[in-house]
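Troubleshooting entry. Yesterday's outputs looked truncated, so today I'm pasting the complete records for two proteins to confirm everything comes through intact. If either block looks cut off, that's the bug. Protein one:
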Amino acid sequence: MPSTSRRTLIAGSLGGLVAAVGGGMAWTAYVTREHVRFRPLRAVNESDEPAELVVTVVDESGDADDEVHEPTLAPAGETGHTATLRGRSVSYPAPYGVTARSGRESAGGDGDGNRELDLPNAEIVDRHPEIGWGSDDVRVTVVVEVDGTLSARVGEPRERY
């Protein structure tokens, strides 16, 4: 009966360990492929009127409470027409979605335009140019258009030098 040397046992054990670790890392990247971190999450007013918004970051996994931001934005071109919204979604990746509405209206809008925005995680992932396996950083900007409607821009985060 052939005997197995210590080297063969050690090499086989190391090979199995490497395969297990590599498989675990690949599985983690696959499972978190729709997780995003907002870098940054911003609100911008491009209209001539001040805008009050209610922007909600929704953790679609249900693991955490929603983050609610209520920025008041100055008219376009004036100081304060943009706001950077901070919170857990900037630091910790999860399957986040974004909803926004004008703060002066009740939920549902007033029927004269798209005064609400619903941007689920699946749409953020679809609109991101190069999202891959594992969590990614995404730039999301909620925009108050010239006519007062709400829209969103999704893209690559800016490089920091």
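Protein two, checking that the full record survives here as well:
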Amino acid sequence: MESAFLGVPDVNVWLFFGLTVFAAFTAFVGIATGAAGGLLMMVTLATIFPPVISIPLHTVVQMGGNTSRIFFMWKYVMWPVLLPFILGGIFGGILGANIFISLPIAVLQGLLGLFVLIFLWMPSMSQIGGRQSRFAIVGFFATFLGVFVSATGTLVAPFVAAEAADRRNHVATFSTLMAIVHVLKLIAFGFLGFALAAYLPLMLAMVASAIAASYVGSKALNYMKERSFRTIFKTICTLLALRLIWIALGIEI
């Protein structure tokens, strides 16, 4: 069996197309749940590739899918939160790039899971302070932690949920903010010397399938009940946060 399909190292034809389909699946799940797609993809990629490949690959694919949702759902984006989030994210990316190998991943995962549970189940905590300062802080930590653990959407999601009046506002704004995070992370990875040229065919295929699924998902969201979306979102985020904590504690699940 060929182990370098289209020149992609250690990826045969079955894995190539399997990951392409999986990218579409996680993109649709991300819209339906409001958060879970990115972490689901990261967990899967981490079982196949080493971190030096899985984290940048995850970043590129998620950036492509999230960016497409901005175009599909632009009228639902909560634009006022973007600038403070970007400013905070820039500082987070700079700091993360400078101490990339200095912090234990398990500690970061445990803290991330803990904070998600606090903000998710104590909604008033996700509305402390002014909106601009709040999203600047969220942008900082989402990008900073994203350099290490990549999938930080579960941290951003509770703050978006607290602001969003409608599921479409949530998905559109969340996707926009995460696209920003991934762009800033890619810049940080460039300074860290990550090289993914050999994986370009796989990235293009996964991004294309994620964009197609995002379009379908954005249409399907119109038919989803608001209460169902909120319930699924809260349940999925809770499970993902608990999983991060269990991993940090060394518990196999």
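Both blocks look complete. Sanity check on protein two: Residues 167-192 form the longest helix (26 residues).
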